[in-house]
Fold each of these.
Amino acid sequence: MTQSIAPEADFDAAPTLLDGAKNLILTAEHCNLSYWFTDVAQGTLAGRGATGHAPDAEIPDFMREIGNPLREALVLEFGFRALSEELATRVLSHYVANAPGIPEMEFFATQLVDEARHARVFREHLVELGVPRGRLFDEIEEMTVDYRRRVLGPVEEFTLDIVRDRKDFYGGVAVFTIVIEGVLAPAAELSERKWGVLNPAAGEISRGTSIDEIRHLVVGSTILRDHLLRAPDYRPRLLEILEAGRQLWNEVPDREYVIHREELFQKGMADHTDLLADYELWPGVRMLDTTPDERYDAAERWTDEMAESRMTFMGLPTDWLSGPAGE
Ligand code: FE
Ligand code: FE
């Protein structure tokens, strides 16, 4: 018996993260536990449950060469993302605890598992790249010490204050949907496009996580839209939280970490021009012709575009978005 998978959860048919996040509409009621078991666990993840990629997805030998800048760039990227996803999982436990109803509780239970899975597949790929399993947790901890303290720590505190301490579930959803996921998602899209051609296994891992992120972004947005329709009085507080979150993100020094990885990527890319040839990172632009700054700026631009379309969907103003955000 073949069962049809919802197109947005189908590994091959799902839209790109940017398209999906801008154009899809999904509710928490629809994306309940039964949807998750059938369309995600047995759909998106069919054949990819253990590692996030198909067993025969290639990992080229150069990706396992110690000292290869591409390997270094990916170890850092996936190590950092593993930590971000781990912290996201832990924070989400408060969303489950404070969910106002069963649909929201079920949805956030699935999102919690999604993020725990993301952390796992990013970590497991480090082992596939040659990090000794016995050193895995220590290595991630060592490489992320500063990033955790300077970038993730402040964002985590900000979120916990709202969702755990003030028990403001909707404020928490806003922070997660617009600020946290909204900022990380464009980086994920970029990652998928960059690695798909150099390391197909890593490309599949990123693709699978992006499919989940589409759901997180659009369901979060729908929860907020519906809440604002029911409780228009909440609007000023919501805008205040979003503004504060946006400001916080502008203050944390994430750029230097991303640029460091992009510089390694740049060096590595130059050694593999044969593989890349005319591969376009976005329409009309060959990846080989892009610079670390251009790639970072593209992700920033996508962040603004996505935030703008989600805010419009929720009936919120977007004028402040490009204000203090410019670098
Ligand atoms: Fe995630
Ligand atoms: Fe997510």
Amino acid sequence: MQSFKGLNIPADILGVLEEEGFENPSPVQLSVIPSALRGESVMAQSPTGSGKTLSYIVPILSRIDPSLPRLQALVVVPIRELARQVVFFFEPFLKKMEGIRLQEYTGNTDREEEAAWLSKYQPQIAVGTPGRLLDLINEGLLKLKDVKTVVLDEADMLLDMGFFEEAGAILEAAGPTQVLVFSATLKEHLKSALAKYVRADLRYEGGKEKTAGEVRHHLVDVRHQDRNVAAVRLLKAKRPYLALVFVNKKEEAGPLYTKIKEAGFSAVSYTGDLSERERRRTMRLIREGEYQVVVGSDLLSRGIDLPDVDFVLSLDLPSDSDFYYHRAGRTGRFGKDGDSYVFYDLGEEEKAKVLLEAGVPFDFFTLKGENLVSDPKGLTGKKRRFKPEVDSDQGRELSIVKARMNSKEVKPGYKKKKKLALEKVRAKYRRKAIKAAVRRNAYGKKSGGK
Ligand code: AMP
């Protein structure tokens, strides 16, 4: 297997890679690093957890001139958490490499303080979110004249979140320079948005699969159990070291978190409701192994690197199937195994089918008590029994008929008449229920939901 040593990386950087326990380059690193070291532009499709961050950190640090106190590399990321994480990746290198200054610029950093500092100095590396970076550039505070490298990390997310205009303006301000683009997917609309700014010398499309490949995907039929209860049962069945549990709406996180805590797990909730400071603190504690279960919204699924996640559980299939890839990508990182469980009920097959047809190799389970039982019938082998709901109007009407019949004189054939009258009422409500069920099907698979 090829080692980092053969890649022309300066000795001090090699030393840190070794200290950090990175022995062999991952496929994306193996392709991207040599090309990026030569100053070439790269467009890389690399699944989350594939090692893409080091693919640009190593070339940036190798090409930087520490004696030049000017901005030389710019890393653009879509969200603050990612900026934090990228800085975190840079840190061990910066500790060993003297004279390199890195600054982080996001909506959360102190604008005034930054402006005062930037009017006197420049960092050699800036990591930040598009809006803040562009503000600082437009005001002439961040000076791009000596920039050698611009990185767009999680470019598909930049595009999806509507940051492409800013990203484009940053690339334009940087002028002709090395551009390194990393994206979980390289969809056509992203490629065409980028075409204006990037002429990639290298296109790396190594990881066709969107997650790192070591994730096993499981659809779990919860058989109409309350999903919070089912989540606790699954957690008890699996006893994870660290599990991430995803809800579709952040309001659902609170009740679930309470249930999980009550069941005796050390848990935390991570949603958009946390302040920036709380998010940072929580993320640090999660990394330090403080919690066994993290309940979160999709904020948690976006590019955040938590090593050693045993499994992720989605309480519902996400509304957008791309979210599923981001969620599942939180486990099975860098060669470690992981599992992604998704709860479903009969009636929700369509969303699951979208993922199955896109090639996610789901297997099937049902949750019986605290046991996960393999379900060979899967999605297709099950029949949905039609069980009309009891209509309260029906009960009322039946008692009226009964009362009327009982008040009549008892004549021959009375019993038969009463039976017929009651049957007429029941038949009416059966028809009503069947019509409603047919309507539900016609309107899109709502029957059998939670
Ligand atoms: P990334 O795709 O950059 O988010 O990285 C995913 C994870 O892989 C991080 O936790 C890194 O610490 C780890 N990693 C990156 N490169 C290597 C490597 N060459 N060997 C082992 N682990 C790595």
